[in-house]
Amino acid sequence: MAAFTIAAGTGNWFSALALGVTLLKCLLIPTYHSTDFEVHRNWLAITHSLPISQWYYEATSEWTLDYPPFFAWFEYILSHVAKYFDQEMLNVRNLNYSSSRTLLFQRFSVIFMDVLFVYAVHECCKCIDGKKVGKELTEKPKFILSVLLLWNFGLLIVDHIHFQYNGFLFGLMLLSIARLFQKRHMEGAFFFAVLLHFKHIYLYVAPAYGVYLLRSYCFTANKPDGSIRWNSFSFVRVISLGLVVFLVSALSLGPFLALNQLPQVFSRLFPFKRGLCHAYWAPNFWALYNALDKVLSVIGLKLKFLDPNNIPKASMTSGLVQQFQHTVLPSVTPLTTLICTLIAILPSIFCLWFKPQGPRGFLRCLTLCALSSFMFGWHVHEKAILLAILPMSLLSVQKAGDASIFLILTTTGHYSLFPLLFTAPELPIKILLMLLFTIYSISSLKTLFRKEKPLFNWMETFYLLGLGPLEVCCEFVFPFTSWKVKYPFLPLLLTSVYCAVGITYAWFKLYVSVLIDPPVGKTKKQ
After folding, report:
1. What SS3 class is residue 325?
2. What residue ranges are annotated as transmembrane (predicted)?
C-alpha cells in the first residue's frame, strides 16, 4: 500500500502496474506452451522464406496460415528479427522445431507487443467517469480498471503460457473504443478496420461498430426525446468512413486480389468444414445442447429406445472430436448457428439504434455481440470469451449492475480456460493467479459500490462457490477413480457445462439490463 501511495504522489502508479505485470510475464517464459507456439513459428517460416503468392497455399505443416493478411505481414516483420536469434526456426521444413533461442524470441515478442495493450488501457482509463472517486488510490475507478485489464488472468495464461498474440490485438480494440469515447470517430473506425485485417474473429463485434458510427457520427443530432433527427444525416461523414474502411481493406487484400487469390485466402479464413465445437467444448449454448444429446442418448440406451449399433461411435466415446454427430437431437449446421447468432444479436443492435445511450450503450452492445457470437457461433474457441470479458471490464467500474454481471462472467469465463493448461507444473500457477485476480476483482468492486446493494444474490454466490468443488473433483479426485479410463472426457464435459450455465446467465442478465434501461435523450450526440 505504501508503494502505491508513493506512486500516486509522483503520478507513476500506472507505470508501476504495467512494469509489475511485465516482470510476471518474464517469469512465465519457461512454462508450458501449446501447439500455437509451433503455429506461429511456422507462420514466421512461411512469410520469411516464401513469396507472398505462396503464403496461403503452403501446406507442409498442418498449421497453415489462416489469419488475415495484416497478421501475415506482422509475422513477416517479426521473422526479420527472428533470424538474429535462430535462423533454423525460419525453415518451413523444420516441423515442430524448437530451441532455447526460439523460445526466448517468441515469448519476448509477445511481451514486447503488449506495449500497445498497455497504451490502450491508459487511454481507456482517461474515459472513465470520475464521479466515484475514493480517498485511497486503490479505491479509484481508474486504478481498479487498470488492474482488471493489465493483470487480466485470461490474457496472462492465454498469451504468456498457452501462447498467442491476443494482447496487442485487444490493444487495437481498446484503443478504438477509447477513441469513440473521446468522440474521435474516424480514428476509432480506422483502428477497428485495421484490427479486422489482423484477426477476423473481431467480425463478431462489427455490427456494434457499424450501427454506432452510423447513429452517432453520420447523424449529427437527435431530437429532445432522444430519437433520431433524420435531416441531420451527413453524406460527407458516411463517405469518409467508407473511404477509411476501403483503403484499409485495399491495403490488406489488394495484393491477393491482384494475384487472383482472394477465394483461397477466404477459404483459409473461414474453414466451415470444421465441426460445430472445438476439441474442448467452449462453454456456450452448444455445449449444453451436446450434453443434453448425450444424456438423452444414455437414457435411450437404458430404456432400449435406441439401437447401440446405430449410435455414432465418436458421439458416445470421447466427446472431444471436431466432427460431432448428434444422436437424438438434430445435428447443427453452420447456417443454423449463423441464424441463431443473428437472432441473438439483433435486439442489442435495435437498442443501440432506438435507445441511444452514448458510448456506454455502444460498449454494452459490443459486449452483447461478442457474447451472442460466443454463445451460438460455429466452432467457437474457449479463448473467445475474452472478447466479452475485456470490454465488460470498462463497464464494471461505472455501475453496480454491470459490476455484478462482470464478476459472474469473468470468474466463470476465466475458469473455463483452465483445460488449456493441463500439465502438472502449471496447475498451482493457474489456480494461484486466478484466485488472486478473482479475489481482487470482487473485493475492489464491492468496495467501489459499497453504498449500493450487494453485487451477488444467494444463488449467484452459491454458483460461483461451486467452482471450487468442481476443480477439486476434476483435478484431484477424478484422476484416481476408475472412471478415468472409461470416461476420460468427463472432467472437460463437466467444466464446459458448468461454465456454460454461468456464462449463459451473465449473457441473459446483461440483455435484460440493456432492454429495460431507458434511452438517454439529448439534443446533441454523446
Report:
1. coil
2. 104-122, 143-158, 188-214, 234-259, 335-355, 361-378, 429-449, 461-483, 489-508
> Quick one: which of 116, 211, 126, 206 has its CA closest to 170?
116
Residue-wise pLDDT for 231-259, tens only, equals 888 999 999 999 999 999 999 999 999 99
269 in Cβ contact with 68 (< 8 Å)? yes
The pLDDT score that the predictor gives to residue 525 is 42
Residues whose CB falls within 8 Å of the CB of residue 211, separated by 6 or more in sequence, listed in order = 349, 352, 353, 365
Residue type, 336: T
The answer as to whether 326 is a domain residue is: yes
Task: Specify the number of domains making up the chain.
Answer: 2
> Would you say the C-alpha torsion 3, 4, 8, 13 has a positive or negative sign?
positive
Residues 50-84: tens digit of each pLDDT: 999 999 999 999 999 999 999 999 999 999 999 99
Given 205, 233, 267, the domain boundary residue is 267
Mark residue 155 as left, alpha or beta (left: phi above 0; alpha: psi -120 to 50; beta: remaining).
alpha
Q: Cell 503464403 appears where?
A: 55
pTM confidence score: 0.92
304 and 250 in a common domain: no
Q: In the structure grid, which three cell numbers stand for residue 505, read together?
A: 446467465
- Please check whether residues 251 and 338 belong to one and the same domain: no
Pair (335, 305) in one structural domain? yes
Q: Which of 213, 232, 267 is the last residue of a domain?
A: 267
Residue 6: inside a domain: no
- Considering the domain architecture, whether residues 403 and 296 belong to the same structural domain is answered as yes
Tens-place pLDDT, residues 334-366: 889 999 999 999 999 999 998 888 899 999 999
What contacts 310, CB < 8 A, 6 or more positions away? none
pLDDT at 11: 55
More confident residue, 497 or 332: 497
Nearest-CA neighbor of 153 among 373, 416, 353?
416
Residue 386 to residue 129: CA distance in whole angstroms: 24
Evaluate whether 78 touches 165 at the Cβ level (below 8 Å). Answer: no
Q: Are residues 32 and 176 in the same domain?
A: yes
Q: How many CA atoms lie within 13 A of 1 on its CB side?
A: 3
- DSSP result, 18-53: HHHHHHHHHHTTTS---THHHHHHHHHHHHHHS-GG
Domain match, 78 and 165 both: yes
Residue 87: which domain range? 11-267
Within this chain, do residues 76 and 115 fall inside the same structural domain, yes or no? yes
Rounded to whole angstroms, how far apart are CA atoms 468 and 368?
A: 28
Query: Is the domain of 245 the same as that of 295?
Result: no
Are the C-beta atoms of residues 421 and 157 closer than 8 Å to each other? yes
CA torsion 396→501→167→511, rounded to 10°?
A: -50
Contact 178, 128 (CB under 8 A): no
